[in-house]
Amino acid sequence: MNSNHINLKGLDRIELESYVQSWGEPKYRAKQLMSWIYQKGISDFESMTNLPKSFRHTLSSQATISRTEIVTSSVSTDDKSIKYLFRLSDGKQVESVLMFDQQRITACLSSQFGCAMGCQFCATGKMGFFKNLTTAEILDQFMGIEQELGREKSITNVVFMGMGEPFANYKPTIKAIRLLCNPETIGMAERRITVSTVGLAPQIRRFANEGLKCKLALSLNATTNADRSQLMPINFQFPIDEILSATKHWAKTTGELATLEYVLIRGINDRTKDAERLCQLMANLPCKLNIIPFNEIEDSNFQRPDANAIENFQKIITQNHYVAPIRFSKGNDITAACGQLRTIYHQAGKTMTGMI
Ligand code: SF4
């Protein structure tokens, strides 16, 4: 991609209107461009036959529409998930995962390359942070996967649970969500999008006021500040009380149930007293709980609890009348499960350690 060319993918309607007007074209060209970019998946301006020839030439010399290349993909042995490695225009590589569950086809998208949050149970956290993805780079993952799926199937749900903390890249992520949900582009229902956060309290409150009907998942994973700070350093900045209060605000403002995610780790957060405290934390919060048995990663001593311990933990929660399904992540055998994404990439002769 020529770096002097403006990338039209990722511009919202108003930005695109002002761009076409800057070339003396009427506003409705923006709608035509959106249809070519997102609905028809065309990135060659010369093929956009309802645009005047002269404007097509201008666009070809001044603008571009990014496409992200899929470098590799791996399919899990149960055929229920596919991990994609995308090469961004700057050569960096990010991963996205596609999961099949009956009629539901969920794309798990990355919002950052690497992650600064440093959660101890997560391979991406161990990679460190490299950059925020642009709105176009987030959308490119979605569109690249859609293209791979072909005409017969479509993504039905999106979760922002790939590499990175979406609220640490707030504006590009929200803009990507709005473009995904715009009927003039992809037209995905807001309810089918879930944003998962480690608990950036100010952004959770801000998200409540976006007017979006998307879902919110809070990655809790511990029931005391001492334990949570060990697992998730962000807890020093935003302790449990504060993130639950922000999540409650979100639930009240949107009228939705929040989802608490609880990665269950042997001997760390799977004790009876953890389950009991978890019930107390949930008592005043409109929420449901997902118990996620830990997916083992390299360079970590953490282990998944055995089946009995997982069941016992769940039993205590359900005896207290909370819904608490156990979610075994898909794609463990291709390291595509929750917390396993980490990229190996080569840049300027340098190999970054990481995932795949
Ligand atoms: S769990 Fe999410 S926020 Fe935490 S380090 Fe991993 S990618 Fe970052």
How is this structure best summarized?
This protein is of the alpha/beta class and 356 residues long. 34% of the residues lie in helices and 21% in strands. It starts with 5 loop residues before the first strand and ends with a strand.
Provide a descriptive summary of the structure in words.
The chain is α/β, with parallel strands linked by helices. It has two domains: 6-64, DNA polymerase, domain 1 (Orthogonal Bundle), CATH 1.10.150.530; 69-352, Aldolase class I (TIM Barrel, Alpha-Beta Barrel). Helix content is 34%, strand content 21%. It has twelve helices and 15 strands. The protein has helices spanning 13-22, 28-39, 53-62, 123-127, 135-149, 170-181, 201-208, 225-231, 234-237, 240-254, 272-282, 307-319, and strands at 6-7, 63-64, 69-75, 81-87, 93-101, 104-108, 112-114, 129-132, 157-160, 193-197, 215-219, 258-264, 287-293, 345-347, 350-352. The strands form four sheets. A nine-stranded mixed beta sheet has the order 3-4-5-6-9-10-11-12-13, covered by helices on one side. It has a two-stranded parallel ribbon with strand order 1-2. Helix 5 crosses helix 6 and helix 7 (201-208) packs parallel to helix 10 (240-254). The longest helix is centred in the middle third of the chain and has 15 residues, at 135-149. The two termini are 26 Å apart. Residues 344-356 have low confidence and may be disordered. The structure holds iron/sulfur cluster. Iron/sulfur cluster binds next to helix 4. The site of iron/sulfur cluster has 12 residues, from helix 4.
